[in-house]
Fold these 2 entries.
Entry 1:
Amino acid sequence: MAVHSFIVVGGGGSSGLPAGKRWSVHVGLNPFNTIFGAFSRDLGIDLGTANTLVHVRGKGIVISEPSVVAIDTRTKKVHAVGAEAKAMVGKTPANIVAVRPLKDGVIADFDVVEQMLAYFIKKAHAYAALPLVDPRPRVVVGVPSGVTEVEKRAAREAALNAKAREAYVVEEPMAAAIGAGLPVEEPIGSMIVDIGGGTTEIAVIALGGIVINHSIRIAGDEIDEAIIQFARREYNLLIGERMAEKAKIAAGSAYPLDEEIKVVLRGRDLLTGLPKAIEVSSVELREGIAGPVNAIVAEVRAALEETPPELVADIMEHGIMLAGGGSLLHGLDKRIAAETRMPVHIAQDPLSCVARGAGKMVEHFDNSVYQDILTRAQTSRRVRR
Ligand code: ADP
Ligand code: MG
């Protein structure tokens, strides 16, 4: 389990730089881009471990597909991407493997991520097809806040190699907070907890900056894995990842349900080798997934303990915002509320928060708050020439 926590000093607009100078000093944007920007179809991308979403400037979210790539092992060629590739997981013929190139929230396989991004960017452009539109957009990509500088650069390079004209990264919790409509630029502490497939990102944001940040590599995937282990341990039943995820969505929970339910797990009996189906209750399942769920809740508490008291007071008043697909786990909001004694809200359409946040940033690219946020998120800037 990797835990990252750090404090970013300085808030939005506090740089003391004259407003006019901010761009050249901070981001160094080409002034022509502002003029052409009005005509280009810039992209905000949520490169999630489970799902990739693409927001096209002026159009909204046009792509939402699993971050899965099917590769032919003989030719090393990409066979399918996205939904088509996910349908192949666990069912591929010998020469084709379906991979999730971002399994732990980081770019594990640079080439594959690049090809996946290129595919999604091309597809987004097909949706936004307009004559005279620059086919080389500016791109804002959400990356987990725990990633290293090298990984940030890898994400930017991947976007640039996928024909982006300029590429910027933004920390996912910041994008999620913007997407969830939190007042990130104000002197008010907001807490966002984004539970994705590979990572849970917890951040306290104020004045356009991330004040407290915790990122753990425990999220939806680990809950699925816990269900696989549970079925094996308790029932000698071998189930696949997709079965586990379905059971989690149907009957997984983090808090007692008003009405406990049952779900059928189908797989292979490890003793006989034959197919087997068993019915399990949501109560058993809750115990089965307690490990990763407890770890997530404990991390939220740890982040709160580190938060300066003034900001804790704000969070008490406004509540903790949950985002990401994992926030839909039944009762997770109640559980976090019970253990932190804070009000907890689930963002509207939690799966698209990061994409909507990155989308807002490309819609209002010149907004000084977003400029500051982007500047802080980059360490080195690269513009394709
Ligand atoms: P990422 O940002 O890593 O791509 P997402 O925010 O797209 O992740 O969330 C994907 C995760 O959310 C997966 O682990 C998925 O199983 C989980 N998920 C999606 N819907 C639900 C649901 N209704 N209940 C519980 N978990 C869910
Ligand atoms: Mg995400």
Entry 2:
Amino acid sequence: STRIVLASRPVGRPEQENFRTETVELEAPKPGEALLQTLYLSLDPYMRGRMSDAPSYAPPVEIGQTMCGATVSRVLESDDPALRPGDVVLGYGGWQTHSVERAATLRKLDPALAPLTTALGVLGMPGITAYSGLMTIGRPEPGETVVVAAATGPVGATVGQIARIKGARAVGIAGGPEKVALLRDHFGFDAAIDHRAPDFAEQLAAATPDGIDVYFENVGGAVFDAVLPRLNQYARIPVCGLVANYNDTDLPPGPDRLPLLMSNILRKSLTVRGFIVSEFMSQAAEYIPAAAQWIAEGKLSYLEDVVEGLDHAVEAFQGLLTGKNRGKLVVEVSAI
Ligand code: NDP
């Protein structure tokens, strides 16, 4: 079995030397366990946090440990009555070609129901993140304006489309003209803006003539700066991610803008509420069937960026943090 372990903690951008590829003997599954072959590995922005030992909501990957990650795998051997060889399961096998996992932690997938990769994206953790953060904290009303960045990614694209399903106006922000075209043509956003455009703040103001009622925060940084003056009274801000800052080693220089933020929160009676999807996992039971239905009805589209081979995982992960991915980033580890 081949695996990629954390070799050292990155300072700033993760580099190839922070990872190491190893070959190890396969273990036989113990009672209650199954030996799995990884088909697909999910790459997600949170993995940057796990590479660091800074305080976080989850413990870091230790040096020498296999990089963590959600996986879709095929059962090779099982010592649990619930699983048989050939079953396909959603698990947390990490960056490796094979894994031994506890059967109780695995969810069986039906390959006939939806493409297997969707269990890592639109019908998986990122989809549930989008739905729960938007519906529980954002709570868009018909006619309101919802703004989201990283909007071609699995979280942002799902946020924008659910906002529209709920009758709100969706404004998407993404990096570069190609992604902006995807927002309009593939995902059906009401307006789409490039955060790299020199007049980004002006474009955002023009695209939000009635202000912003819900800002689903995925990125932070310059996007948040442009959003802040557009926020309406009683606007809601689910704080989901801050990917613009994940590689930062220090606070940026400049004036202290905290008083500006706090005075906006006070004057506009803003709700700013962070969340980790694990808090809302119970909503998967309502979200997954609803999303499958929306996909069947053509109301919810998704986009996947499938990279072939575990040996390309590091490069693909580096690209995720700078926007090189086109949709949900997945590594095809073995051919089906
Ligand atoms: P994406 O596939 O959207 O990938 C991240 C995207 O972030 C990039 O493609 C890029 O898009 C964008 N980005 C990177 N740097 C910047 C920047 N400086 N300014 C603006 N945009 C930038 O990832 P996901 O959909 O999986 O995740 C989106 C967010 O949700 C992340 O912040 C992630 O950490 C968070 N998240 C939080 C969870 C929770 O439980 N709270 C659970 C899951 C995800 P572009 O090219 O368009 O700029």
